[in-house]
Amino acid sequence: MTTAALTRPVAVRPVAVRGPLATELRRGPGPLTGAVTAVVLALMLGTTLFTWLGVWAETAEFTHLAAAQVGLPLALAAGCWSGGRDRAAGIDELRATMVRPRGRQLVVAALPVLVWTVAAYLLFMLLAYGATWATSLGGGPEGARLLLVPADAAGLCAAALAGEFLGRHVRWRLTAPGAGVLLYGLVGVLRGDTPARVDPAVWEASETPAPWLPLLYGAGALSLACALFLLLARHRAAALPALLAVLALVPPLVHDGRLWHGEPRPWAQVCARQGVPAVCVRSSLAGLLPDMERVARPLQERLRGVRGLPERYDDGGEGGGRKRPLPQAPGIVPGQDFRLAGLTEPQRYTRDLAYSLLPCFDSGSAGDLPTEHAVMSWLTGERDVFADDKESGAADRKLRAMTPAACADWLTAYFGARDACHAKRPGKVPAL
Hints:
Elements: H1 20-27, H2 29-47, H3 49-52, H4 56-83, H5 85-89, H6 92-96, H7 102-135, H8 143-146, H9 148-169, H10 175-190, E1 197-198, H11 212-232, H12 236-253, E2 254-255, E3 269-271, E4 280-282, H13 289-302, E5 320-321, E6 324-325, E7 338-339, E8 342-343, H14 346-355, H15 369-380, H16 390-400, H17 404-415, H18 418-422
Antiparallel strand pairs: 1-2, 3-4, 5-6, 7-8
């Protein structure tokens, strides 16, 4: 007798059913929008690298303007594309008959574009701030500028929902690219020197915005996003308070450049402890100070014994000392004038230091050129620079033939003649 072999039932694993939102996040227009936004912002990072790298204020200005000038138009165009998909596919009337609430349908349609756009922007911010953190020579991000990050993210959300609104209500095939180009041009105009402008689009690195200004910008963007979402969900009564909040926040943001504006704050300076005049640089480039001090030391040694010199240079060019302006420190441009190892052109930095000491440098009064050439040659230690100029060569030989004491006395009188330059009396400036 044979017995049938008992077989165990095959275990069937339940198939994970993905909701429509998860599907849209993975396969809808959101991933493509995020990829395009990330690529465009990455190209901006690479092509403008040395204009913002290593300086926190410049990085904050660059990332904010990139979000305003590029991120907002891309988010608006992507939202228009997403909003017009149902009509282009001919299923907009079918959507209206669905049992699922309209608000849930809107979340499924609009949220993927919004999420991917903001994710691309945050990745862009991480790359930019990470690069500056790794290469910064001092300082750090200002608290008010850090508030720009959530404010810009809120602006992208509002732009994406505004695009969704336009895409659903404007029946034109070129709505998406047209709206994006129009917003791009509008932000470009607002960045210009127009009487009325939107400050969140035109902040400069030399200014520290008032902390409440990014908060107002973010609150206005979020209010606009909520109002647009409620209008799309056909909750018009609930959208009214949000629209009123947006209107209330417009006047503080749109003004003539004088009202409700963060006061410009001079960049803090750090100066070397030795040498006269002491070299100074803004705190964001404090790591360059040892190299700058080393390069300036020979010039300071040549000035030993000269009386009446300013105690330091001024990186902002607005200081004052001993009833005369401080000599302006040479401008330092990231990538052009320095790398992390130090100054790229020490000789040019020495020439700039020497040139800023000349009495007629910033007065608009032309001095004795042979004398200026001789003093520059003596300060920088460069010989035969003016070999083709007989007068400059003769003045150079005359200055070098002086004894150290006589040279210090003559230079004291020469550097002290700044008042004569400002009074347009070049004849009062000593000449060789």
